[in-house]
Amino acid sequence: ISQLPDHLICQILSHLPTKEAVRTSILSTRWRNLWQLVPVLDLNGREFRLFVSFVGRFFDIHKDSCIQKLCLRISDQAGKSYLTSWIDLVTRRRIQHIDISHVFYRPEFGDIPLSLYTCDTLVHLRLSLLTMVNVEFVSLPCLKILHLEFVKYTNETTLDKLISCSPVLEDLTIAKYSEDNANVLQVRSQTLKRVDIHGWFDRHTRLVIDTPLLQFLMIQTHSIKNIDFINLGFTAKVDMDANWLTTLDPNDLSNRSMMRDFFTSISRVKSLVISYATIKVYIAVCSISNLEMLLNLLKSCPKLESLSLKLFNYKKKKKAEVMSSTVPPCLVSSLKFVKLESHELFGCGTELKVARYFLENSTILEKLTLRNDYWEENVNHIRQTLHAIPRCSSTCEVVLL
């Protein structure tokens, strides 16, 4: 490997943390100074005693060259005090990748300087446990990946500008900090393909999704006022763990209407994953059985191709009701894959009833998967029961996990 030219060795070293790259200097005189040519600084303050001085030395070495990546884990007040000057410096060195976070949670987050908002070479930005100050102008023409984890905003317009003024943004992750002063979280982008939003929201927070090219959406959140889908991509895959529904009042007609609008807004998705919490609360709000809720959901998604459903026995003492004979359009024309998952210790009545419904009514179903870690003793009985069910699709495969 020492016979490779310097630029290839530096390319290899750029994939290592800086501490490991420096260690290669002991291999031979050929390697002694190669780490200094690597335009990447990836350093954890907890693992490097002379953190601040080493960062300063790195910038001195690269004072006349470009820096491709800056990845810092700041663990003390000294590092935080230099943060502004470090970011100002790399934004002038054609930086492409910035990843900065605090190692420990601290009430006083470090501030992100204004220079970051107008970096015209930045492609990948990840910030964690930092504060984004108010800014009048944002221009990030090359930014494709944006990850904000427990970041504070001085006002909600800062986040709106960051998303809307990134014209090629494709991947967005927001782990929301409950005290970030953003009561309305707006994700509006004509280019976003992947959105992941999770964390603890204030109960008054409203989430707005306007992403016509979206391909994948994951939302895992608690205590949110409501979610509005204004424009959702036709091919979007939606993964919902919507525990925010537990905050709704089942006797409030406006809440019922909001839920109907919510399911209607995701009617064009091709793949849908929903958790048991969503099912449980929808039952309460609609005052119907879990199986009838599932039927209403399927009716709202006429183009659904894949469904992954987590089930549980919400009212164990209540006998499961018979599902309606009406067959939703997706079972006839689009639904190909169904996965039913349960973590109930006793019984399998609900799972078998739902499985029977799909087998008897899904015209083009290709695969039905059932999973329960407690079925080991009854697996033969369950397999025999499923085998005896008449199938609308002759090519459907049934798998037990």
Write up this protein.
With 401 residues, the chain is of the alpha/beta class. It has a domain at 1-38. It has 11 helices and 20 strands. A 14-stranded parallel beta sheet has the order 1-2-3-5-7-9-11-13-15-16-17-18-19-20. Strands 4-6-8 form a 3-stranded parallel beta sheet. The protein has a 3-stranded parallel beta sheet with strand order 10-12-14. Residues 276-289 and 314-320 have low confidence and may be disordered. This is F-box domain-containing protein.
Write the layout of secondary structure elements.
Elements: H1 6-13, H2 18-23, E1 40-44, H3 51-61, E2 69-74, H4 77-90, E3 97-102, E4 110-112, E5 124-128, E6 130-132, E7 145-149, E8 152-153, H5 156-164, E9 171-176, E10 184-188, E11 194-200, E12 206-211, E13 216-222, E14 226-232, E15 237-242, H6 253-265, E16 271-274, H7 276-286, H8 290-299, E17 306-311, H9 329-333, E18 337-342, H10 349-361, E19 367-371, H11 379-388, E20 397-400
Parallel strand pairs: 1-2, 2-3, 3-5, 4-6, 5-7, 6-8, 7-9, 9-11, 10-12, 11-13, 12-14, 13-15, 15-16, 16-17, 17-18, 18-19, 19-20
Protein name: F-box domain-containing protein
Pfam families: F-box, FBD, LRR_At5g56370
Domain F-box: 1-34
Please identify the structural class as seen in this structure: alpha/beta
Measured as a percent range, the helix fraction is: 25-40%
Rg: 26 Å
Mean pLDDT: 80
Which of globular, elongated, flat, extended, rod-shaped describes the shape? elongated
Determine the N-to-C terminus distance: 46 Å
Strand ordering within the main sheet: 1-2-3-5-7-9-11-13-15-16-17-18-19-20
- Please describe the biggest sheet, giving its number of strands, its sense, and whether it closes into a barrel: 14 strands, parallel
Number of helices: 11
Q: Uncertain segments of ≥5 residues (pLDDT<50)?
A: 276-289, 314-320
Q: Percent of residues in beta strands?
A: 25-35%
For the secondary structure, the number of strands is 20
